[in-house]
Every structure is written in structure tokens, then in C-alpha cells.
Design goal:
Elements lengths: L1 H75 L1 H8 L9 H7 L17 H12 L6 H16 L4 E4 L7 E4 L6 H11 L8 E3 L10 H14 L4 E3 L7 H7 L1 H9 L3 H14 L3 E4 L3 E3 L10 H6 L19 H9 L10 H12 L1 E2 L5 E3 L7 E3 L1 H10 L4 E4 L8 E4 L4 E4 L13 E6 L6 E5 L10 H22 L1 H11 L6 E2 L1 H12 L5 H8 L1 E2 L5 E2 L7 E3 L8 H9 L1 H11 L6 E3 H15 L5 H11 L6 E3 H6 L3 E3 L10 E3 L2
Parallel strand pairs: 1-5, 2-3, 3-4, 6-10, 7-9, 10-12
Antiparallel strand pairs: 2-13, 5-6, 8-9, 11-12, 13-14, 15-17, 16-17, 18-21, 19-20, 21-22
Enzyme class: hydrolase
Protein name: Serine/threonine-protein phosphatase with EF-hands
Keywords: Calcium, Hydrolase, Magnesium, Manganese, Metal-binding, Protein phosphatase, Repeat
């Protein structure tokens, strides 16, 4: 009988173990499927982000075209170029004098700084920003001017050493996410003699607190110039800021003095060092390497001549184009980097590592290159470096190690694409220890949502922005669909639909698996391709506008925003009808956009509601936004997503 009881007990234990194993395997599979969905959503975000950056880089060709055309126009109308690209500051303008003219009223209740700055000012600034106070423009300009003086004395490549008793902390992209910076300081400590930092670029854009981050970092630099290093990233660029939000943030927060702040900020950017080397063996730069990376050249080039990645050197014997370029760049001289020097800087700011050997064009971003493990090994060996620390790419875990441990990517902005999309991280380097990684994720909730809810939110946002990209290319997509639909049935095979999507959008996405979120399929598995657009549309600003014009303006809205921001020299948001027409004609000619000028004129005239001869172009562009009539993922109510 005892044996019988033992047998029953054994059978019961086996069943419990078997059940536990089944549950465990199911849960592992469930998490794996959720993680796969999350990775797919991140791939969508990243592909569209890089496609936008590619368009941004390609704007350089347009600006070169524009310079050449306005150089010719200058001969006929000398005032035209000055009107569009000239500085508003008189020749006798002195930066420090202008700052002194801005009084701080007694009623101001934000952070008050005392020069020369001390550690106490860092704490005051942080506490003020925690309370969402806006730093007075007097202090903003003063900090920028002082920071420029300090940066001008620094070399292109900063050399620092670790000490036996402390470590150097390296942070990656912050992108205006103040909560991440504050969390880093809470976990790791404020900058000081004992807690040195290297911030590896992309402090600004995308997030809503770029100026606050920049002020904290620059004030910390002024207090501890030997213990804090700031590398330039590809977003420390005044024309990038026009597209990705920092210019708008400055003008909203500082209205009256915004233009002056942007002017000085542009100069500060150019003086930021472009790399840091620790202990003569750890190379830190924002993007990466190329086969032609020359550290000796990077040490000696005149970095302040690199005004913007969107303004490559123009090889010309004439001075006219150089005059225009100097005006738009705020530079009074005609000097610029050589083409080779410019390419060197572009590569270290924009390049990305890949597993494929060799060095080949970074077609996703449109700038820099993809570099393989052989390139990394060759360049590091040539300059006797152990490994490279870079940033520039969002990673799910906040960091990634590749190329046999010789390349470390560190990205410090958590929730970069969407809440829950990724962790942030920083790395600590000691003299006698391996790199140590610290991860975190800012959350507004004391009890984080379950993984399936976070993944569904991320996935929903990714699908929405992908649909917006699809509707911006609707005409091209429909033309391609119909080309493959020989029977005119309105249906394609899944493979034909996927090939059509990739050929037009060029996003390198898993279209077949994404089809469940994007299109309807019949009982035979055929794709009803017009269902790609059934739940999204571009809201028209005026009923009479031609559909092809609406789609064109929506597709190029970001590029047009930058171009018109250049025209709008006082950042008022208003441009004249004549400026609108001139710039549209240049844009249309360069991009080969086939839209009738009469249509554009009619639309502009209708947008000029008060008939004062000016267009509120910011509102003009906001009129073109995508409306989601229903959400196939969440079956939510009708939502409108505006630019």
C-alpha cells in the first residue's frame, strides 16, 4: 500500500512538473512573440527616421543649387540675397553688449545665475528646470557667450585621462529628454572633479527640453572645463534644428530674443570638439569611422568652418556663391572646409557600424557610411586604439557591443520613439576595469504597464506613422499597384504587393508580415491594394486644392518648412507672397516636382486670408496633416494626428 501511495505521489509530481514545463514554454513563446513584435515596431520607427534623415542630407544638393541660382540673381538684384540670407545684426554689433542690454526684471522667478559660475549654479539651474521654469534670455545668452570662449580654446579632439580612484562616465544621445539627464545625475552624481563626464552629441531636437539640457551641460562645462567634455553630434546643426524641433522650441520659449539666441547658438555648435580620446586608447565620437578616417587630419582642421552638414563646400572660382554661403551661415569671411575635410567630419558624425565587411555608402541615412569590422580593426590598429565608443543609433537596451567588442554604441534617451520603446544607458570607464553599463527607463507611472500593453502601444504608433508615409506616396503606390494588376481586378498577390511597397517606399521592412496591419485580403489571400489607404487621408486646407498638389505638399512638408524658415529671417512665421513664389519655383525645378505654378499661386492666395500679401507658412503646413479614420489595432474612436 505504501508503494501504491508512493507511485501515486510520483505520478502527481510528474504531472505538476509537466504542467509547469508546458506553462513555462508557453510563457517563453508568448514573450518571444511580444519581443518580435516590439523589434518589428522599432524597425519601422528606425527605417522612417533614417529615411527622413536621408531627405535632410539630400537637401544639401538643393541648398547648393539655391546658392548658385541666387548668386546669379544677385547680379540683377543685389538686395535679394541680403533680404533672404543677410544678418539682422549691424556691423557694430557686440555680443556681450547686447546681452547686457537685456535686463532681468524683479518679477522673474526662474533660476538666477551668478558669474563666474560655481557648482551652486548647476544645482540652482537643475532645481529651476525641475519646476519647469524658463531660464531668462539674459542668462541663456550669457552662458552661450561664455561657453563659446571656453570651447574656442579647446582642441578638435579632447584628450583626457582616467585616474586610479574614479571613473569617466560616457553618455550618448539625449535629444531634449531632460528626465533622462536628471535620472543619470541622480544615479551617477552631478558633474564634478570626482565625477567626470563625456556627452557624445545630439543633446537637442525631438524632445521638448533641448534648451534646458544644453544650458545644464554648458554651465557644467564652464564650472568644470577639465572634467566635462562635449562632442558635437549630427543634430548640433542649425539646419537640422529647423526640421527636428529645436528652432521651434527656442522661438516658442524666447520669442523676442529667439533669433539672437539661435545666432549665437550656431557659433557655439561650430566650436564643439568633434571627438574625445581617453588614455590614448579609447576613441569617442558621435557616429563612427570610414576607411579614409584620418585622426591626424581631424586634429588639425578648422572645425569652426563646418557650419552645417547641409552646406557642403562649393568648388567655384567665383566669390559670389561664397558670399551667399557666408551670409546664410552667419560667417563674414569666405573660408570653408575643403571637400575632403568636410567628408571627414560627415563620416564621424553620421556613420553606422554593420556586420558586413568593408565600407559602403549609408543609403538609409543618406550621409556617412556603413563600416564593417575590418574597417574598425584597421583604423583602431593604425592609431593604436583599443575600441570605439559611439552613439547615433537607438538601441532597445540602451547600448550594444559589436565588431568583436571593438565598437560600443551607447544611447541615453529612453522611450525615444514611444514610451516603453527602449531603455537608456551610460557607460563608466576605469583605468583598470572593463566598461560597466548602467541601464534605466524613465516612466511616469509607479507601476509600469504589462509588457503586452507596452508592445501594443509601440506597435500602434509605428503602424500609424507608416500609414502616414504610405499616404504621402499614394499616387506612386497606386501607379505601381496598377502596373502589376494586369487583370484590373484591384487585387495583387501578397508577394506583388510587398514588392510594390518596397520599390516605392524603400524602407527595407518585412512587408509580408506587416500586411495584416496595413491591407485587407480576400478569402484566397489576395491583397485588395486600395485598402492600404482606406483608413487614412490627408486633410485638405481648401476644398478647391488639387489632389496631386495636396499630396506633393504633404510629402515635402518638412523640406519646405526648412526652406521657408531660411526665408523667414525674423522667424515670425510670415513670408511674402513673392518669396513664396520664388522659392517654390526653385524647389520645383530642382526636385522635378510636376505641379502647375498656377495651382500653387491659387492655394497661396486662398491661404492669405487677410489679403495682406503675407502667408503664415507654419499654419499653412499644419493644414496638411493625416487623419486616421479608425485604428485597426485598437478599434479606437476617430483620431487626427497633426504634424
Amino acid at each position: 500500500m505504501g508503494c501504491s501511495c508512493s507511485s501515486v505521489a510520483d505520478d502527481g509530481s510528474k504531472q505538476v512538473i509537466r504542467a509547469a514545463t508546458i506553462i513555462q514554454n508557453w510563457y517563453r513563446g508568448y514573450r518571444a512573440r511580444l519581443k518580435a513584435r516590439q523589434r518589428c515596431a522599432l524597425t519601422i520607427f528606425r527605417s522612417i527616421e533614417y529615411a527622413d534623415e536621408q531627405g535632410q542630407m539630400q537637401l544639401s544638393n538643393f541648398f547648393s543649387f539655391m546658392f548658385e541660382n541666387y548668386a546669379k540673381a544677385r547680379e540683377k538684384d543685389p538686395n535679394l540675397v541680403t533680404q533672404l540670407f543677410g544678418s539682422s545684426f549691424p556691423d557694430t554689433y557686440e555680443e556681450e553688449d547686447y546681452t547686457k542690454m537685456i535686463n532681468v526684471p524683479d518679477s522673474y522667478n526662474g533660476p538666477r545665475l551668478q558669474f563666474p559660475l560655481t557648482f551652486n549654479d548647476i544645482e540652482i539651474l537643475i532645481e529651476g528646470f525641475k519646476e519647469q521654469k524658463i531660464l531668462h534670455p539674459h542668462y541663456v545668452l550669457a552662458v552661450l557667450h561664455e561657453a563659446k570662449k571656453v570651447l574656442m580654446k579647446m582642441p578638435n579632439v579632447s584628450h583626457i585621462r582616467t585616474l586610479p580612484y574614479n571613473e569617466i562616465t560616457v553618455c550618448g544621445d539625449l535629444h531634449g529628454k531632460l528626465e533622462d539627464l536628471l535620472l543619470i545625475f541622480y544615479k551617477n552624481g552631478l558633474p564634478s572633479d570626482d565625477i567626470p563626464y563625456v556627452f557624445n552629441g545630439d543633446f537637442v531636437d525631438r524632445g521638448k527640453n533641448s534648451i534646458e539640457i544644453l544650458m545644464i551641460l554648458l554651465v557644467s562645462l564652464l564650472v568644470y572645463p577639465k572634467d566635462l567634455r562635449l562632442n558635437r553630434g549630427n543634430h548640433e546643426d542649425i539646419l537640422m534644428n529647423m526640421r527636428y524641433g529645436f528652432t521651434k522650441e527656442i522661438m516658442q520659449k524666447y520669442k523676442l530674443y529667439g533669433r539672437e539666441i539661435l545666432k549665437v547658438l550656431e557659433e557655439v555648435y561650430t566650436w564643439l570638439p568633434i571627438a574625445t580620446i581617453i588614455d590614448n586608447e579609447i576613441l569617442i565620437m558621435h557616429g563612427g569611422l570610414s576607411m579614409s578616417t584620418d585622426l591626424n587630419l581631424l586634429h588639425r582642421l578648422e572645425r569652426h568652418k563646418m557650419k552645417s552638414v547641409l552646406m557642403p563646400p562649393v568648388q567655384s572660382d567665383e566669390d559670389t556663391t561664397a558670399d551667399v554661403r557666408s551670409k546664410i551661415g552667419g560667417q563674414k569671411g569666405k573660408t570653408t572646409l575643403s571637400q575632403h575635410e568636410w567628408k571627414q567630419v560627415i563620416d564621424i558624425l553620421w556613420s553606422d557600424p554593420r556586420s558586413k565587411r568593408g565600407c559602403y555608402p549609408n543609403k538609409s541615412r543618406g550621409g556617412g557610411c556603413y563600416f564593417g569590422p575590418d574597417v574598425t580593426a584597421k583604423i583602431l590598429s593604425k592609431y593604436q586604439m583599443k575600441f570605439l565608443i559611439r552613439s547615433h543609433e537607438c538601441k532597445p537596451d540602451g547600448y550594444e557591443i559589436c565588431h568583436d567588442g571593438k565598437v560600443i554604441t551607447v544611447f541615453s534617451a529612453s522611450n525615444y520613439y514611444e514610451e516603453g520603446s527602449n531603455r537608456g544607458a551610460y557607460v563608466k570607464l576605469g583605468r583598470y576595469s572593463a566598461p560597466r553599463f548602467f541601464q534605466y527607463q524613465v516612466t511616469n507611472s509607479t507601476c509600469p504597464r504589462p509588457l503586452h500593453q507596452r508592445v501594443s502601444t509601440i506597435e500602434g504608433s509605428a503602424i500609424r506613422i507608416l500609414k502616414e508615409r504610405m499616404v504621402s506616396r499614394k499616387t506612386d503606390l497606386v501607379r505601381t499597384f496598377e502596373l502589376h494588376d494586369c487583370s484590373k481586378s484591384g487585387k495583387l498577390s501578397l508577394s506583388q504587393w510587398a514588392l510594390s511597397m518596397e520599390s516605392v517606399l524603400e524602407l527595407n521592412l518585412p512587408w509580408r508580415s506587416l500586411s495584416v496591419h496595413l491591407v485587407n485580403r480576400d478569402k484566397d489571400g489576395k491583397v485588395e491594394y486600395m485598402s492600404s489607404f482606406q483608413d487614412v487621408q490627408i486633410k485638405k486646407p481648401v476644398k478647391e486644392a488639387h489632389s496631386s498638389l495636396i499630396e506633393t505638399l504633404y510629402r515635402y512638408r518638412s523640406d519646405l518648412q526648412i526652406i521657408f524658415n531660411v526665408i523667414d529671417t525674423d522667424h515670425s512665421g510670415l513670408i511674402s507672397m513673392e518669396e513664396f513664389r520664388d522659392m517654390w519655383k526653385l524647389f520645383k525645378t530642382h526636385y522635378g516636382v510636376h505641379v502647375d505654378d498656377i495651382q500653387v499661386d491659387e492655394l497661396a492666395n486662398q491661404m492669405d486670408l487677410n489679403k495682406d500679401g503675407s502667408i503664415d507658412f507654419n499654419e499653412f503646413l499644419k493644414a496638411f496633416h493625416v487623419v486616421h479614420k479608425f485604428d485597426t489595432l485598437h478599434k479606437s474612436d476617430t483620431l487626427a494626428f497633426q504634424e
